[in-house]
Amino acid sequence: MTIKEIQEEVIKEFEKLNNELEKYNYLIILGKNLKSIDPKYKTDDYLIKGCQVNTWYHSECKEGKIVYEVDSLSLITRGFISLLLRICSAQKPEDIQNTEFYFIDKIGFKNQFSPLKDNSLFKLINKIKTDAVSGSRMKQNKN
Fold first, then answer.
1. Which residues 6+ apart lie within 8 Å of 15 measured at CB?
2. Which of 87, 93, 108, 130 is 20 to 30 Å from the Cα of 18, by its Cα?
3. Are 85 and 124 in contact (CB under 8 A)?
């Protein structure tokens, strides 16, 4: 599936939820179900700097596609991580770097967080996009 198709799928899932409480509960369920990051990456070296809640991040390019492992102490953050990984993991770097993550606005969370939590989410998105640029360069260098 393309990134756009996956974002549309996520939007449809959230449209079925009746209110903000159901949306937050769904994020918490997603967060609980997110696979934990490999313990070797749960160190200070893999922390995303400036996030309000400890969030660990690792990515690598495999067969021309980027695979992510991300984890956090916050269940709601883990829920968003789950959505971002679903959308971005195993996608081509150039597709990720050209993506507008419009699903956040469409599911009703664009302005729902404190500035610090917003900042953390956007730091994660920026990290994903930065690594996509790096992954694209690695892919080009191998060809």
1. none
2. 87
3. no
Quick: pLDDT tens for 27-51. 999 999 999 999 999 999 999 987 7
In one-letter notation, the amino acid at residue 137 is R
* H-helix or E-strand spanning residue 70: strand 65-72
| Nearest one of 72, 73, 70, 75 to 28, comparing CA atoms | 75
d(CA 75, CA 77): 5
Burial category of 39 from C-beta neighbours within 10 Å (exposed 0-12, middle 13-18, buried 19 and up):
exposed
- Amino acid letter for position 108: G
Q: Which of 51, 50, 65, 62 is nearest to 97 (CA)?
A: 65
CATH classification code of 3-142? 3.90.1010.10
Task: Check residue 108 and give left, alpha or beta (phi > 0: left; psi -120 to 50: alpha).
Answer: left
Least confident of 24-33, 42-51, 80-89, 102-111: 102-111
Residue length, the chain? 143
